[in-house]
Amino acid sequence: MSEESLWAVVAMIGRVIRIAEIYPNRAAALADQAWREAQVRAYAGFLENAAQPYPHYAVKAIRRADLPRRWKPLPALGFLNGKL
């Protein structure tokens, strides 16, 4: 991977995909993905009762140039406030 490459944790709900966080290495991105998935599992009952879809997370390589201009990190449960 080049110096321009980063690892992104992406959140997906249906066809909506957002970059949740970026990291310089894959190990850190995988750790963040596991943490985010644990947060969603912790609130799974609430989400099901509210009929709220919840995100699935994945780790993907991304180039710095491909980041949206005004990108900001996405909180693990940010989708509950309409931030996804």
Draw up the topology in text.
Layout: E1 5-13, E2 16-23, H1 26-42, H2 44-49, E3 56-63
Antiparallel strand pairs: 1-2, 1-3
Structural class: alpha+beta
Shape: globular
Low-confidence segments: none
pLDDT average, as an integer?
85
H/I helix tally? 2
Across the major sheet, the strand order is 2-1-3
The number of distinct structural domains comes to 1
Strand portion, in percent? 25-35%
Question: How many E strands?
Answer: 3
Strand/helix succession: EEHHE
- Specify Rg, calculated over alpha carbons: 13 Å
Task: Describe the largest sheet.
Answer: 3 strands, antiparallel
Assign a percent range to the helix content: 25-40%
| Distance between the amino and carboxyl termini | 28 Å
Tags for this model:
single chain; 84 residues; alpha+beta; three-stranded antiparallel β-sheet; 2 helices; 3 strands; globular
Q: Summed up, what is this model?
A:
With 84 residues, the protein is an alpha+beta fold. It has helices at 26-42, 44-49, and strands at 5-13, 16-23, 56-63.
Model description:
With 84 residues, this protein is an alpha+beta fold. It has one domain. Helices cover 27% and strands 30% of the residues. It contains two helices and three strands; from the N terminus they run E-E-H-H-E. It has helices at 26-42, 44-49, and strands at 5-13, 16-23, 56-63. The protein has a three-stranded antiparallel β-sheet, covered by helices on one side. Strand 1 and strand 2 form a beta hairpin. The chain is globular, with a radius of gyration of 13 Å.
